[in-house]
Design a protein that fits this description.
This protein is an alpha/beta fold and about 300 residues long. The chain contains 8 helices and 10 strands.
């Protein structure tokens, strides 16, 4: 079945809008940040003083009568997994973009950067269940397919449960991967254990997407507020200072619980807002990772 023209147009526009950043700064930052994820065997060569004795190949040494070592090359082909929250709370935004739109744009930026490096890219969409899974493959066409899925997929559920999605990915991924988890992490159930377990084998990064209105509610008078995950609608008076304070206190408690879970997981974290240049936090993260690699 062909895609609606508006979806195909969105995918094409997204590729065009990210191309310049991918081709300039971001492509180099992406590769240097994640180089050296693994090593592949290249050849045997004779041992010379100063070589690491742990690389000596004893079978070859015994067979030839000379000391040989195994030489390894850095594994250049990496695997990038995009784990994307498609629950109801991502369908919200008070500025120019919804949280889900920001996630799609950042996924495109990562995906095309990985494709430029000839890496494998996969996709996992989740709500309170695994919604959709695309195994890692290579190529620009594959990235376009992933973006079409991000635009076109209609979630079966509006709830959020991060743990089962990460557990599913842990069971599927056999080769070491770089996993970016895009979510607002508004999950009432604990998820730190699943994140921590995933990070033991895979480089795991939590990308926390937020909207300014979730932190401080503006005065808009009487408005109908709909819970995006339960569908419940409530008419509230946002001109009431008492209501706005109560709302902000509630969101503070949500943030405290979320941040506690993320700290317990021990994974890297990137905070992204829906306003301003939302690509900058991702670029800053890669710059810092590249600097750390270069300092080793």
């Amino acid at each position: 079945m062909g895609l609606p023209p508006e979806i195909a147009k969105k995918v094409k526009l997204l590729e065009i809008s990210t191309r310049k950043l991918v081709n300039s700064l971001f492509a180099g930052q992406y590769h240097s940040a994640f180089r050296g994820q693994g090593m592949t065997f290249a050849e045997f060569r004779e041992y010379v003083p100063g070589d690491d004795v742990r690389t000596i190949s004893w079978p070859v040494t015994a067979r030839t009568g000379k000391t040989f070592i195994k030489k390894f090359d850095e594994e250049r082909e990496l695997t990038l997994m995009l784990a994307v929250d498609v629950s109801g709370s991502l369908d919200f935004g008070s500025k120019d973009n919804f949280k889900g739109e920001v996630v799609t744009h950042l996924s495109a930026l990562l995906g095309f950067s990985a494709a430029k490096n000839n890496d494998y890219v996969g996709l996992l969409l989740f709500s309170d269940q695994v919604e959709h899974f695309v195994p890692p493959r290579k190529g620009r066409g594959h990235i376009q397919r992933i973006l079409r899925d991000l635009y076109y997929h209609r979630p079966r559920s509006a709830g959020t449960k991060i743990g089962p999605a990460l557990d599913f990915m842990q069971g599927f991924l056999k080769k070491r991967a770089n996993v970016f988890v895009f979510s607002d992490f508004q999950d009432p159930s604990p998820f730190s254990t699943s994140l921590r377990m995933l990070s033991r084998k895979h480089d795991t990064i939590a990308c926390v997407v937020q909207d300014p209105a979730e932190l401080s509610l503006p005065d808009l008078g009487l408005v109908d507020m709909r819970d995006p995950e339960t569908g419940e609608v409530l008419t509230v008076d946002t001109s009431s200072g008492a209501f706005r304070r109560a709302f902000e206190e509630h969101m503070k408690r949500v943030k405290i619980e979320r941040d506690k879970e993320l700290r317990k997981s021990g994974v890297d974290r990137i905070d992204v807002m829906t306003e301003g240049d939302f690509t900058q936090p991702l670029i800053s993260y890669f710059r810092s990772k590249s600097g750390m690699k270069g300092a080793r």
